[in-house]
Amino acid sequence: MRIAFVKRLAFGLLPASVLAAGLVVAIAGRASAPAGRYRIASGAVYDTKTKLTWQQALSASTYVQADAASYCAALGLSGAPWRLPTAKELITLVDVSVAYPGPTLDSETFPGTPADYFWSSTPFEGSPGNAWAVGFSYGGPDGYYVSALHYVRCVH
Question: pTM, whole model, 2 decimals?
Answer without folding.
Answer: 0.79
